[in-house]
Every structure is written in C-alpha cells, then in structure tokens.
Amino acid sequence: MSTNSVVKKNRKRLDLSDAIIRGFGYIFVSFYALACVFPFLLIIGTSFSEEAVVRKSGFTFFPRGFTTYAYDLVIKGGTIGGSYVVTIVMTVCGTAIGLFIISMTGYALQRRDFPFRNAISFYIYFTSLFSAGLAPYYLMMTQTYHLKDNYLAVFLPLLMSPWLIILMKNFVKSIPHEITESGKIDGAGDMRIFSSLVIPLLKPALATIGLFLALSYWNEWYNCSLFLSSRVQYKTLQYNLYEVVNKIASLKNSVAATYVTFDDLPQETLKMATAVLSTGPIIFLYPFVQKYFIGGITIGAVKG
Amino acid sequence: MRNKKQNVVALHPKKQIKNPIKRFFINLIHYRVLTLMCIPAIVFFFLFSYMPLPGIYVAFINYSYNKGIFGSKFVGLSNFKFLFTSGKIAMLTRNTILYNLAFIILGNLLAIFMAILLNELRSKYFKKVSQTMMFLPYFISHVLVGFLVYNMLNYDYGFVNTVLVNLGFERWGPYSNANVWPVILVVIFLWQVTGYNSVVYFAAIMGIDAEIIEAARVDGANGFQKIFYIILPGLKQTVVILFLFALGGIVKGNFGLFYNIIGQNSMLFSTTDIIETYVYRATMNDFNFSTASAVGLYQSLFGFVLVLTSNWVVRKLNPDYSLF
Lengths: 304, 324
Hints:
A: mainly alpha; MetI-like fold; 2 domains; B: mainly alpha; two-stranded antiparallel sheet; 16 helices; flat; disordered N terminus
C-alpha cells in the first residue's frame, strides 16, 4: 500500500513537468511545422491570383480574383512540357541504372571473401576525400569528353556517389552471410546469388536509395547550368524554373511568342505557376515515401 | 591490404601463394564475377573523379582557352600568390567557415531540441503530420528555395513587405543590405534541414534504454530531469561524432543554397561569397580557369587535411565510427 502511494505521489509531480514540456512541445512544433509549409501556400495562393491585384497589394495566401490564367499560359505556351519529358526520362532511367550499379557494387564490396573489396572501397571512397574542383572538371567535360550541350553531361554524373554506395554497403551488411553460403552450397553463381537471393532482401535499401537518386535527378539544375547553353531548348524542370525566375527573356520564352505581348505578361503569377508546376509531383509523392528516407538517414547518418 | 592474408587462407586453406602477382591473378580469375560487378562503378569514378585530377595542373599555368593546356604559360605558384596577397582567399575562407560553424552548431542544437520535443508528444497522428510538414523543405530544389526566399523578402511584392506596409511600417530591402544576410541564410538553412536532421536524433533517443527512463521516473525524476540527466547524456556520443564529421566538411559549402539566394547580386558578396560561389563565377562567368583551379585546389587540400584530422579524432574516441 505504502509503495503504491509513493508511486502515485511521484506520478502527480511528473505529470506537472511533463504537461509543461508537452504543452510547449505541441505549440512549438505546430508553429515550426506551419512555418515549413507557409511559403508553399503563399506561392500556390498567388499563382491563382490576378496579376493586377498581386502588383497592387503583394503576394497573398488566399487567391484574390481567382484565375488560372498564368497556368494556361505556362502549359499551353512554352518550354515546361519539354522540360517535363526531359526530367521524367532522366529520373526514371537514372534511378533504374543507378540502382542496378549501386546495389551490385554494394553487394560485392560487402562479401567477406572478396579479396579486392578493401582496395575498391578505398578507390571509391577516396573520390569524396579529394577532388580536382570545378574548373578542371568543367574543362574535362567540355574539352576531353565534348559533352557541352549534351544531356549526358547532366545525366551521367548523378548516377552514383560514394555516399550512396556506402549506404548500400551498410544495408547489405544486415543480410546474414549464411544466405550467400547457402546459395553457394546449392551451386548458384555469384550473379545468381545476388539476383535471386540478395535483391529480394534488399527491397527497403532499394526503395531508400532509389528515392535519393530520384530526388537528385528531379531536383537537378547544377549540371544543367554548367553544361547546357541556350542552344538546348529543353532544360530540366528546376533549371527551367531557374531561368524563368532569373532571366526576363526566358520568362518570355516560357510562353508562346504569339500568345501575349511582353508588357501584358503576368510576370509574378507566371513565375509562381511555373514554380508550382515544376515542384508539383514531389509535393504529392513525398508524404508516401518519407518513411524510406527516415530509414536511410538513420542507417547512413554516422557512416556517411 | 590488411585482409589479403585472411582471404587467401579462406580461399586456399592448404597452400599459401607467396608471389603477390600470381596471387592477384588467381584471385582475379576466381572472383571474376564479383570483380565484374564492381567494374561499372570503377569505370564511373575513373571517368568522373580521377580523370579531372591531372587538370589540377591548370592551377599552375596562365590558362588561355585558345592555346589549350599545354600551350599556356607555366607560372608556378603565382596564381596562389595573387589569391593570398589580395586577401581574397582569406575572405572566402572566413565566410565559408563561419557560415558552416553557424550551420553545424545551430543546426544540431535545433535538431536535438526538435527531436526531444517530438519524443515527448503523445499524439501519434500529430507527430506524423507535423513531421511530414517539417520534411517538406528538404524535398525541394535549391532553385525553389531561392525563389521562395525572394517571394518572402523582395522589396516590391514580398510577403514581409506587404505585412510591414499594411501595419504602417517602412519597407525593408534586404537585397541591398549585405549585413543582414548571415542571419537570413542561417535561418533559411535551418528551415530547410531541421526536419530531416531531427530524425537522426529522434532515432538516437529511441535507442536509449526505456528501462533507464522508467527507473528514473520511479525514483521521482520529473520531466526536465529526465531530459537533462538521461536523454541529453544519451545523445552525447551521436552529437560528438556528427559534430566531428561535420567539422571535416567545414570548407565545403552549400553552393546551391548560396547561389540560388544570392546569385549574381554583387552588393551582397562581402558577407555571402563562399569558396564555391567564387569558383563557380570564376569558371562560368569570367572563364578564369587558372584562378578557379587554384582556389579549388586550395579547398580540396584544406578539406582533405580536415577530414583526416576529424577521422583521426573520431577513431581515438570510438574506432567503430571511424570512416577508415
């Protein structure tokens, strides 16, 4: 009886401090989470507003004078359709090819009996320790490989990174070595063991690393800015957005030339609509795939 | 190297092959499939990471586009001398390191704070929804981040100015005032990564033995004591390791963030130019490949030493976590 009452007493005291922390937690986290989505609501709201109202009274949270004019211009007019095709093709192919190579390499490098694994691991890891820097890289890509204005210059460098291979190795580590052994005893070759026994167990790893790859392809603008000049009409979505936001001429190109005169262009809402369309699919997809990212972060965090 | 002996033993338990060349080829034939599985990655890193290395030579010549690498004049270290005597390198290094220190320290503090609060919340639904919302900024491109910042802050239609004007205040023009950007950039950085970073600490808190917490409660520890005497000490190791690794990358910048927010706005460069934005402009705007290479080489070497040092410290603290 007496111990019970002590525990009860303690519970009461605990509840007060816990309630303070919890209450503060709910308030702080709510505000922070709202701050995270607020700018997005702002551009979505403004993209459906009328340009004249936006110019007079600034960006807005709720559409003022609801209209889809800016979207009509962007979709019917210009470059965004081509950008979508370029980005989707790159994302799909890059993720598939990248995943294949990364998982193969990750498996081989994690095989305990593979004598070259330390040498190859170091060979790959070293590239993240020391690099030549941007200028020699740029000269090599443009003058040795002649990849200026070539989509391959955007596509290839994103296929893999030392970090993703290390992440894959950490995932493979969690698969018991006995699986490989049992395959060997049954007479399967290394490739057969990999494709029939290991790959099915690597599904969470493939999902996580596939998402990192897909995200880096979808958000690609850097290589585009380095290697694709104005001679290439369709850039990736994000670089298309970059140009529409930062270069007036590109803003005009993003709608059909005959559509409106330049002075009539609803500049601000047009930028907003392009931003919404360029980001679109990610916003709808990420809540579903987020758990795979969480798995990736916790496995890859320290041994990055 | 160090595994060779043990592997050979596993492969040929009876006879040891002494000749290393012979051993290499025997291994190559025996493990041809595993070797082939690594070939695409080996070729990839050779083409995109090792091939540019000889190009570092550009840092030691006065590169001209027409003459090519071998036709340009060799100038030794004078590219570096210029960068050091003009104070350019010092300014870039200072900006890069100070920004990274602020990012690392404040970023980790806020992430830990957030993880502890999330851990205290009981409503699963609330936790899930708020985490999803906090994750959103991490999934978008830096181009969009730059655009969002512009929408919040620009002089004419920006949201902040709309609110200020409506409340009867003067307009605020940060895009022509260099001094405010360190604060703004740090806030944007925190906004973008905290949701993501807090997950690491959240997982670490989950890893703390629940029985310790239960025992403390029975002994009468209140909520604050639980946080200060159990959770924070429990996170110490994760914090130290992540901090040390982050220090290893302190001369590498967040190029995308700076380039998309500041861009070519030279009014703001004194407080916002980092090594990578300078290298990018020197390469892409000025075609000054020699200067760009010199700065890049300086950054690579500096970074290399830092990573080795931080890894050495990590290995002293806990060999399990060291990278090599």
